Amino acid sequence: MNTIKCVGLAVAALTSACSHHAEVATPPKTAVFAKNPIIWADVPDPAVIRVDDTYYMSSTTMHMNPGLPIMQSPNLVDWELSGYVYDTLSDGDQSTLSNGKQSYGQGSWASSLRYHQGRYYVTTFANHTGETYIFSTDNIAKGPWARAEIDELFHDASLFFDSGRAFLLYGNDDIHLVELTADATALKPNGLRITIIEKASAIAGENFWVPAEGAQVIKKEGYYYINLISWPANGMRTQLVYRAEQLTGPYQGRIALQDRGIAQGGLIDTTDDQWFAFLFRDSGAVGRIPHLVPVSWRHGWPVYGIDGKVPDTLDIVSQRPALGNIVESDEFVYGQRMATNHKPTLLKPAWQWNHNPDPQGWAVTERPGYLTLTNQRIDQGLLDTRNTLTQRMFGPTSRATVALDTSQLRTGDTAGLAALQAHYGFVGVEQTATGPELIMVSGQSNDTPEQKQVNDRVALAQSIVYLQIRADFRDLNDTATFWYSLDGADWSPIGTPLKMKYTLPHFMGYRFALFNYATQTPGGRADFDFYRIE
């Protein structure tokens, strides 16, 4: 009879039969074993910890706000968004898309997540501010998060507590160690500051597109293990691991995994002493998607994968084989709790704003049951307007539909649904001097003024219209098509398909985006009745 091992709480329905390293009968045919990718959506730079029998993860969301998401799982495969560490990371023109400035691809990068003496810690850094941030809380699900700022940028830093001391381990190619105060709120005066690995990439080659970075450190049975990634030129993203008996070294290193570019992340153990590496894979326009890699131990070294490969199917029963609340439909029925508090965290957690939102420009109570986006200023196009509300696109295919009431738009306003990245496309309504018109637009910006073109235009004789984007990420097809309906039932294509491209100026997977911008006068309002995903 086939058997499986109980992995943490992965087989919660079978817990009565499970004990430490127990073997149980194959679960009923209704059971679904988890598959890689475990999240087919953009969740890059994962940092994962386990506290008792619950796993927590932080990730990168760049310029989006609220930012630095916290997710939790009972089994490493079924993840739910708990919330975010901050509402906004910084103010100023870059963060508010003002005066021609922006923070696309900036914001918070590669976080580190820790639990130490009853308190949770998250570190991150931001290139557009040049600072490193350390947040901490007693309640990881609800916060609040205390915030400390260090006026120095520590690239891809991994926070580590050891023998009553606190450190950041960081760097690109050369890996460094810097000591913090014991409460991890500041650099320790005259504290340790050394280089612990020189040219960490060297074990993987000579020329690199990306030298060794993404440090994550753990301690196990007397050894310190540092996980890194590198990307050899004309090769693939490669997972590296170094070990030493002292945190300060000397370190020995080896290549840990070379398989389809699955790399960057750290090691995590389960309650029954099984081990995994939680990594991600660059997957075209959908973004960087997490994979869970079984790990065994041989002679004190972690061995990644099965015969050097990442399995497609895992011996973990998924309790909820879906994306949970990482992506979510919304009817925008929020009640009066939003009347006096426009904090973005009060929306469903799947939503994030493109840059810092203007609280005067959006509401879900001005017209109950609707998301209203009211223009507060004049903008040139999609990429430089505020209050664009986004959710991740997801694979292998995804579809988003909105109902839009355009009756309050003003001449020169454009509102609709976008496939958002530096190379974007949208279907929307432009209010012209002679009336509303359906349009499909494609555009792009690569650190230059936004360039866009209208690929199709259809006269609209009513104020309510239904808009839809269908995305196909199968086999890196990375194509979005655009649709409209006058009754929500019969659909017509509009414009041309968009060949989506993952670009570094935005440095994130594509997003479905709800937007409204004014080109002539502020004050126009777009009312979104619902947002539904399939």
What attributes characterize this protein structure?
single chain; 534 residues; mainly beta; Tachylectin-2, Chain A; Jelly Rolls; eight-stranded antiparallel sheet; globular; signal; hydrolase; Glyco_hydro_43; hydrolase activity
Task: Describe the protein.
- It is a single chain.
- With 534 residues, the chain is mainly beta.
- It has 2 domains: 37-309, Tachylectin-2, Chain A; 336-533, Jelly Rolls, CATH 2.60.120.
- Helix content is 0%, strand content 48%.
- It contains no helices and 40 strands.
- It has strands at 3-5, 23-25, 32-35, 47-51, 54-58, 64-65, 67-73, 80-86, 108-116, 119-126, 131-137, 146-150, 158-162, 165-172, 174-180, 193-197, 208-220, 223-232, 238-244, 252-257, 263-269, 275-282, 288-298, 301-304, 313-318, 352-354, 362-363, 371-374, 389-392, 397-405, 413-420, 423-432, 435-444, 451-459, 464-472, 479-485, 492-493, 498-499, 511-518, 525-533.
- The strands form 9 sheets. The protein has an 8-stranded antiparallel sheet, with no helix packed on it. Strands 27, 28, 30, 35, 36, 37, 38 and 40 form an 8-stranded antiparallel sheet that branches. The protein has a 4-stranded antiparallel sheet with strand order 4-5-7-8, with no helix packed on it.
- The protein is globular, with a radius of gyration of 24 Å.
- Keywords: Glycosidase, Hydrolase, Signal.
- Residues 347-534 form the Beta-xylosidase C-terminal Concanavalin A-like domain.
- Belongs to the glycosyl hydrolase 43 family.
- This is Glycoside hydrolase 43 family protein.
- It comes from Gilvimarinus gilvus.
